[in-house]
Amino acid sequence: METKHIALAWTGGLRFRGGEPGGPAALIDADNAEAPGPMLQLLMAAASCSGADVVDILAKMREKLTSLEIEAWGDRREEPPRRYTSLRLRFRARGDSLDEAKVRRAIDLSLEKYCSVMHSLATDIPVRYELDLG
User: Fold this and answer.
1) CATH code of the domain in which 71 resides
2) What distances in angstroms separate CA 95 from CA 38, 58, 62, 73, 110, one per listed residue?
């Protein structure tokens, strides 16, 4: 079993700086003024986790991906806790003769099986995606 460890230091206002001790640090700003806040960071974590899976899976499928961009939207409750109630992702994949079925399979595998961040979210959050191939 792996245990992850982070340390945060309050830097004033609603800002914190931290990360894995001894590793690179990130700024988190709950006001979203100087850096993305916790909820945006969670959305970025989910999108980048899935993106890393897609890149890795497509490489194993021998698909020649040249770029991947991901946009993500998270709908939140109006009342506390203002958690996400649904997520939408848009994958823009570019490459040499990408096979759409393989790209969709890579995304499905990420979302349904591999993405640790997605699987750490509440199970009642629906996740939808769309794919734009160039």
Assistant:
1) 3.30.300.20
2) 33, 11, 11, 25, 19
Q: Does one domain contain both 8 and 47?
A: no
**Confidence (pTM):** 0.94
Distance CA 131, CA 134 (A): 10
51: Cα separation from own chain's centroid: 7
Structure tokens belonging to residue 132: 């734009």
pLDDT in tens, 12-56: 999 999 999 999 999 999 999 999 999 999 999 999 999 999 999
Tally the domains of the chain: 2
Specify whether 14 is located in the same domain as 66. no
